[in-house]
Amino acid sequence: MELKRKDLLGIEELSREEIEIILETAESMKEISERAIRKVPYLRGKTVVNLFFEASTRTLASFALAEKRLSADSFNLSSSSSSVLKGETLLDTARNLEAMKIDFVVMRHSMSGAPHFIAERLEASVINAGDGTHEHPTQALLDLLSLKERLGGIEGKKVLIVGDILHSRVARSNIWAFEKMGAEVSLCGPPTLMPYKIENMDVEVTYDLNEAIPDMDVIYVLRIQKERQKGGLLPSLREYIELFGITPERLEIAKKDVVIMHPGPINRGIELDPRVADGDHSIILNQVTNGVAVRMAILYLLSGGKSGEIAEE
What we know:
Helix 5 crosses helix 6 and helix 5 crosses helix 11 (about 285-300). The protein contains eleven helices and nine strands. It has helices at about 15-30, 60-70, 90-100, 115-120, 135-150, 170-180, 210, 235-245, 250, 275, 285-300, and strands at about 45-50, 75-80, 105-110, 125-130, 160, 185-190, 205, 220, 260. By secondary structure, it is α/β, with parallel strands linked by helices.
């Protein structure tokens, strides 16, 4: 099976079959990362530009490592080191890069829709590494893989996403991803951090965490963006912790095998108690590990590779 598309821009546009192809391929790529020599020649001769206009640690490092393990030539370009500071437009930057005969652009941008804009105008494949408050598709895919490994499947599971839904591209991608794979999704957070008419995404919305937790198989905790405090969207962090923080005490009313997830970086002691983040329920480090495998899979599939044809060496 192959992924018959040029770009990967969002979960919303992917079918369940396409998601399953990516996850199956990622499982094979994960095996490569466990070998003594963690390198295969699938992207030898291909060039990847990591075009990041927002700060990133995990996502950029994960893509860079994925590219190296596939033997691609890659380099990183940020807004601080590009001609954007000299007034060059985003489109001109991308076209100049493509004139150097590149094959992929992995792009993170603060403007929602920026990767889509570039993808429509370049022959190179574009991968969305996060755009504004819109989507973060590779995060959702690695979350699906991590959950599949832990629970054996996603169909019929109940997932609660907790926190700042309003500003979260991770939340949007994960709502689509979990629902496409057959899970039931609920949201919980302060009313001021809940998007208008979010119920239209076929999710249940609650503002009482203690009522929501007992039935859930998965609690997906979002980062509280402290910079939003200036906008007066939260009365105080202390109140947020009391009402929406995931603590060991709260886990006492949850299922014994409930799974805790977080996209990182964690604000320890705010949205997630350190004892929970490092506890047996947490698969946060598994998410980080699976990020490399999922991004290897996407690069491989967009280059024309087929799931099931990864050689055993």
